[in-house]
Amino acid sequence: MSLLDDGGPIFAQIAAELANQIADGTVGEGERVPSSNELAAFYRVNPATAARSLTTLSDEGLVEKRRGVGMFVAKGARDRLVRARRRHFADRYVRPLVVEAARLEIGLDELLGLVREELASAEVTTGERA
């Protein structure tokens, strides 16, 4: 788990970290997520703050409570989360890219070429294949 920063409410940061783990498959569907006491100890926060992060994830339908057992990743949580993040990605990055490309009269082939160049550059920089 990554450490929290000062960029927002602590409960939201913890919820975001758990959501990231669900999105990347670190915590799979049906798997138990840490309890509020476990989260509180790990992040060194008040248990009520940790509980609020779990409530946030529950409200979003990403985790579900099993009485007497704990909180578990809900069925279909990863798919819903990835779909929502893809929509957000398109709205935040792709749409502005396409709008600016149109302003600059960059056609589809040229735009795709630019994206391919950036992907190749990212592969060299990170050592990963995009």
Walk me through this protein's architecture.
Pfam families: GntR. It comes from Actinoallomurus liliacearum. The protein has 130 residues and is mostly helical. The chain is 62% helix and 6% strand. It contains 5 helices and 2 strands; from the N terminus they run H-H-H-E-E-H-H. The chain has helices spanning 10-23, 36-43, 47-59, 77-103, 108-126; strands at residues 63-66, 70-73. Strand 1 (63-66) and strand 2 form a beta hairpin. The longest helix has 27 residues, at 77-103. The relative contact order is 0.10. The model has no long low-confidence stretch (mean pLDDT 92).
**How many DSSP E strands?**
2
Q: Which structural class fits the helix and strand makeup?
A: mainly alpha
Per DSSP, what share of the residues sits in E-state strands of 2 or more residues?
5-15%
* N-to-C series of helices and strands: HHHEEHH
- Sheet with the most strands, sense and barrel status: 2 strands, antiparallel
Give the neighbour order of strands across the main sheet: 1-2
Task: For this entry, give a set of tags.
transcription regulation; 62% helix; elongated; mainly alpha; 5 helices; Tscrpt_reg_HTH_GntR; two-stranded antiparallel ribbon
In short:
Keywords: DNA-binding, Transcription, Transcription regulation. The chain is mainly alpha-helical. The chain has 5 helices and 2 strands.
Topology:
Layout: H1 10-23, H2 36-43, H3 47-59, E1 63-66, E2 70-73, H4 77-103, H5 108-126
Antiparallel strand pairs: 1-2
